[in-house]
Amino acid sequence: MEISIGAVVKGGTSLAYKTGSWRDQRPVLDVEKCKECGTCESVCPDSSVHVVDEIYVIDYDYCKGCGLCAYECPADAILMVREEK
Amino acid sequence: MSVVKVLEGSEAVALAVKACRPHVISAYPISPQTHIVEGLARFVADGELDAEYVRVDSEFSAASVISGASAAGSRAYTASSSQGLLLMSEVLYASCGMRLPFVMTGVNRTVSAPISIQVDHQDTMSLRDCGMIQLFVESSQEAYDTHIAAFKIAEDPRIILPVMVCMDGWVLTHSYERVTLSEQEDVDRFLPSFRPVDFLDVKNPKTWGSIGEEDMVMELRYSVQQALQYAKGRIKEIFKEWAEISGRDYGGLIESYRTGDATMILVAMGSMAGTIKEAVDALRAEGEKVGLVKIRSYRPFPYEEIWEAVKGAEILAVVDANLSLGSEGAVGMDLKAKLYGHPDAPRVVDVIAGLGGRDVNESRIREIVGRVKEAMNSGYSLREPYWAGLNEAIVPTGGVK
User: Fold this and answer.
1) Residue B8 forms beta bridges with which residues?
2) What tens digit of pLDDT does each residue of B93-151 get?
3) Distance from B89 to chain A by nearest Cα, in Å?
């Protein structure tokens, strides 16, 4: 491994650093209850909620499990469940 | 030809910074630093200095602005003091890690509580561990010349670290002294334009301050340590180079004053060194073999030079205008750590003096010398720091009655 002075690295590489492994609680979205208001997408500090094929999807590669989306969801459509292997 | 003027210390610093042609200056006012950035604001407003002058909402932002500017390849400058420096501290640690070679003035002032705007070294010395180079100055003239050298030191391709010029508040920033100003062309000849090793560029995106975990933190710290070690030699060369152009030579990392045959050597930094020189002259005239080592570069700490200067002496009295509460003065600690193990090392007595602006005048120096002599004769009884000028009668004893 080579490190530059001041650890300056190539830009735009944060996508390669998958922070989902930090998570100990997983948000699970119930699409039946979801009203597609977009609150979860706007409050997610890691931009880990996306619209895919017209439904909201959580990106578990980057979601750190903070639970903000579940807390803010007006339809109670997101449940935090313990991450277990 | 150089010009001699009677200037307020802050004005001398503003003129030195102007002569270095910074691209970006950030400013947030705090006494006794304010006159420096006010001076620079005037130069920018009057069109005498072509720089981006950024007024910010806090010292945290002031440090952040020059970090960003430096990463973008600009020569950047700011100044602060006391609480302001403490608020900057998070950014300053990060700036050293990211190797951003800006220059700032740390105007020495005590820190709260109690609220006091008076001089001591507690503020700047609480930043001693972050990786910045810290140069202490004795006079306004030395402040002027040291700022010019500071940019060259910071930007040296093998150093690339921020430099803080530590200058005593009020005593230097607000008093008027004769200052010789160099010609712009001399400064330009000495200090070429900044050539960053790396810089933010939209065409070639890079990231500063990215994550680096247990696999690299030690190596990066080690590289800063190596750069500071290298800087010791380079600082001396750069000051010598400037001395050849300006005709003003302050020595290298330290200045030794009448230390040759001294049995007792005082060690000090900043403006009190001037007072101590006067006291040394007076005491010498009375037959006392005393001398002074003035530390100019506090970080990197020049223990090799200090050792060379003090090795014949019997005792060192380190006058610390700061205190690591629960231990002792920082310079005393550094010196003891470095001299430990030398079989002929002089004994070291730590003296706490001048906290919160308590005057360190010639009679105080005489008192210190007298007390340390007593200690020498009684077989080194000063294990704990000696508090010079402490009014014991008013020391609060705490809640227990």
Assistant:
1) B176
2) 999 999 999 999 999 999 999 999 999 999 999 999 999 999 999 999 999 999 999 99
3) 18
Q: Are B119 and B357 in contact (CB under 8 A)?
A: yes
Closest CA to B314 of B292, B344, B358: B344
Write out pLDDT tens, residues B7-16.
Answer: 999 999 999 9
Asked if B207 and A3 come within 8 Å (Cβ–Cβ), the reply is: no
Q: What ipTM did this prediction achieve?
A: 0.78
Residue A8 contacts B, CB cutoff 8 Å? yes
Residue A27: partners with Cβ closer than 8 Å, 6 or more residues away: A58, A63, A65, A67, A69, A70, A78, A79, A80
Residue A31, domain member (yes or no): yes
Using an 8 Å CB-CB cutoff, list residues of chain B that contact chain A.
Answer: 97-100, 160, 197-198, 204-212, 215-216, 219-220, 223
**Is residue A3 in some structural domain?**
no
- Flag whether A40 is in a domain: yes
Tokens of A8: 């300056």
- The fraction of chain B above a pLDDT of 90, given in percent, is 92
- Do residues B59 and B11 make contact, with C-beta atoms less than 8 angstroms apart? no
**Cβ–Cβ contact A13 with B under 8 A:** yes
Structural domain of A64: 18-82
Residue A1: its chain B contacts at CB < 8 A?
215-216
Q: Which residue range(s) make up the domain with B81?
A: 3-201+215-246
Alpha-carbon dihedral angle through residues B172, B106, B293, B148, given to the nearest 10 degrees: -80
Q: Which residues of A touch B206 (CB under 8 A)?
A: 8-11
Q: What is the rounded distance in angstroms from the CA atom of residue B252 to the CA atom of residue B256? A: 10
Nearest to B206 among A1, A11, A17 (CB): A11
Domain count, chain A: 1
Q: Does any domain span residue B274? A: yes
- Whether residues B258 and B122 share a domain: the answer is no
Q: Output the DSSP codes for chain A.
A: ----GGG-EESS-GGGS-GGGG-SEEEEE-TTT-----HHHHH-TT--EEEETTEEEE-TTT-----HHHHH-TT--EEEEE---
> How many domains is chain B partitioned into structurally?
2
> For residue A59, is it within any domain?
yes
Residues 62-81 of A with CB under 8 A from B: none
B168: domain CATH number?
3.40.50.970
* Cα B214 off chain centre by: 32
Kindly report the pTM of this predicted structure.
Answer: 0.93
Q: Is A1 on the interface with B (CB under 8 A)?
A: yes
- A21 — contact with chain B (CB < 8 Å)? no
Report the DSSP pairing between strands B176-181 and B3-8: antiparallel
